[in-house]
Amino acid sequence: MSGTWSDLCLICHGQQDLVVNIHEAGPYERSHDYTRVLFCRACGVGELRAFSYDGFVVFGEEDDVMVWSSLMSADDVLVLRSAFTCTVPLAGICECVEHTRLYDTSVRATKTRLPEHGPDRHSPAGRTTVTVAVVDGLAEFRS
Q1: What is the per-residue pLDDT for 118?
Q2: Residues in the chain with pLDDT < 70?
Q3: 82 exposure class (CB count in 10 Å sphere: 0-12, 13-18, 19+)
Q4: Are 77 and 43 in contact (CB under 8 A)?
Q5: Cα distance between residue 50 and residue 70, in whole Å
Q6: Which residues of 16-34 are buried (b: 16+ CB within 10 A; e: fewer)?
Q7: Other CB atoms closer than 10 Å to residue 69's CB: what's the count?
Q8: Fewest Cβ atoms nearer than 10 Å: which of 4, 26, 61, 70?
């Protein structure tokens, strides 16, 4: 399990398990992007999270840290765990068909952009949800 400050549950602030590291670039000194599926045992809630840190942003252009999130049921996390058979599920640089399918469908999945601060960041209210389907033997996200 990999854990960083940004892997904390957005609902209860507890440490989440890293289920699949779908895609990752970095961390570099001035940038870091990832798409992950996380699961909070305390809440029993899964999360599809896309994170972007861009230290090259011009002040006022956009936020340097952005997080998009979509909730997943514990059942969907279980489907993903059983269907995802890549031998390196935590390798965000893996380009196998399973990682590629999850990344492609995660990009199209509807996610909620979370505010950087405030109570809405730590609330499931209004957050989009995704499900997991297995198509042709590969797991994919559905909005």
Answers
A1: 60
A2: 1-6, 28, 55, 57-58, 60-63, 116-126
A3: exposed
A4: no
A5: 9
A6: bebbbbbbbeeeeeeebbb
A7: 20
A8: 61
Nearest to 12 by CA among 43, 51, 46: 43
For 135, the token pair is 């198509």
CA R_g for the chain = 15
**CA distance readout (Å), 38 to 29, 74, 86:** 24, 11, 17
Cα dihedral sign for 113, 69, 92, 99? negative
State the CB neighbour count (10 A cutoff) for residue 77: 23
Residue 81 tokens read as: 């765990």
User: What is the C-alpha separation between 139 and 143, in angstroms, rounded?
Assistant: 13
Pair 99, 88: CB distance under 8 Å: no
Cα gap 133→138, rounded to integer Å: 8
Say what the pTM is. Answer: 0.84
